[in-house]
Amino acid sequence: MNATALIAEDEPLLAQALQAELVRAWPDLRVLKVVGDGDAAVAQALALRPDVLLLDIRMPGQSGLDAAAELAEEWPDDQPFPALVFVTAFDAYAVQAFETQAVDYLLKPVQPERLRLTVQRVQALLAQRRPATGPLDATLEQLRSLMAQPPSQATSLQVIPASVGQSIRMVPLTEVLAFEAADKYVRVLLAQGEVLIRTPLKELMPQLDPAVFWQIHRGTVVRAEAIDNVTRNEAGRLSLKLRARPEAFAVSRLYADRFRAM
Description:
Radius of gyration: 20 Å
Number of helices: 7
CATH architecture of the largest domain: 3-Layer(aba) Sandwich
Order of helices and strands: EHEHEHEHEHHEEEEEHEEEEE
Oligomer: single chain
Strand order of the largest sheet: 2-1-3-4-5
Helix content: 25-40%
């Protein structure tokens, strides 16, 4: 089977070894590019449209999971989504999470026999995928499971200290309608105005009750009870509006499933 691939691995020697083993396991596979970080993986995947993506879990910039999630959001509707293979140094216990998903994984250092099995699985997936969508629907479900926040051991957030000029404003969490990532800051949106904080959204998420705050996009979390309506455009993409806020918030493919009619 002729196919194309992109490898994202931040350790050059491991990337070289993986590419060499791929040549042996799948001679007809053409590696289009090897990149060393998650941001480059997203950019090159969108530009080159490979059939297979091999993503290291831990890379500079954003992780392999984050890169896959961004691609799921940005991928053109009329293009087949790549088959995903995650490369991980996690121990066997952590790998069990991957084995419960159709998405495949390779454990570092990559073993030739395990790679051949992965190649067989990917070839079968590519042979079965529908031209218009590929495995995107299944991939979204897999990513939702893999990216689900584990139960937090941190103290639940009650008040958010935010710098306002020369003072610190203490914002009760009960007043927050949404968090939205913006460059180096996170916008904390209130019924009246907003404040900015420097704490990354990833660090805030484990401190938020997932039943109260819903993630709807890679960079957006909203208070569920503040959602007023959800609309779908002609392309099938969702957006929502919150009570007391004027703007619309995009809902990514990854999180659209929670808005299916009951």
